[in-house]
Amino acid sequence: MEVQSILVVCVGNICRSPTGERLLRARLPDLRVESAGLAALVGSAADGRSSAVAEAQGVSLAGHVARQFTPAMGTGFDLILVMETAHRARIARMAPQLLGRTMLFDHWTGSRGIPDPYGRLAEMYESTFSRLSAAADAWSVRLRKRVDG
């Protein structure tokens, strides 16, 4: 399957998924990359600490608006990247037809899942950003090979 679009999913759609979305967008500018949350804080901007950590690394989360994941939304994307195995299981329960296109964001870097930093210490936000960045690098290498090769 050729990947033309990616949906990045977490819980609130204010920390991990907007960061992952922007990291992938920067690395794969020819693909449509968006994000959503399984229990989204609909209409909210990106979390302030996530934004600050991303900004310090040259990644802007400006303009992000949280939105709720729906099965209909998921069908519009070739690949759905989630942060935790529980997110994959939840999508499978909501929309079993999406399971085959749903993978962990850190699939190529260890598949342990990326914990939610929300409300935790600054170091957790920094660790989360580093893990998301490494995983985005790995996805861009894999997906570029398919596009270029």
TrEMBL record:
Catalyzed chemical reaction(s): O-phospho-L-tyrosyl-[protein] + H2O = L-tyrosyl-[protein] + phosphate
Transmembrane segments: none
Residues the record marks as active site: 10 (nucleophile), 16, 116 (proton donor)
Pfam families with a match to the protein in the record: LMWPc
Main EC class the enzyme belongs to: hydrolase
UniProt-listed InterPro entries: LMW_PTPase, Ptyr_pPase, Ptyr_pPase_sf, Tyr_phospatase_low_mol_wt
Domain Phosphotyrosine protein phosphatase I: 4-142
Enzyme Commission number(s) from the entry: 3.1.3.48
CDD domains (UniProt xref): LMWPTP
GO MF term (any one): protein tyrosine phosphatase activity
Entry keywords, A to Z: Hydrolase, Protein phosphatase
Name recorded for this polypeptide: protein-tyrosine-phosphatase
Highest classification ranks of the organism: Bacteria, Pseudomonadati, Pseudomonadota, Alphaproteobacteria, Rhodobacterales
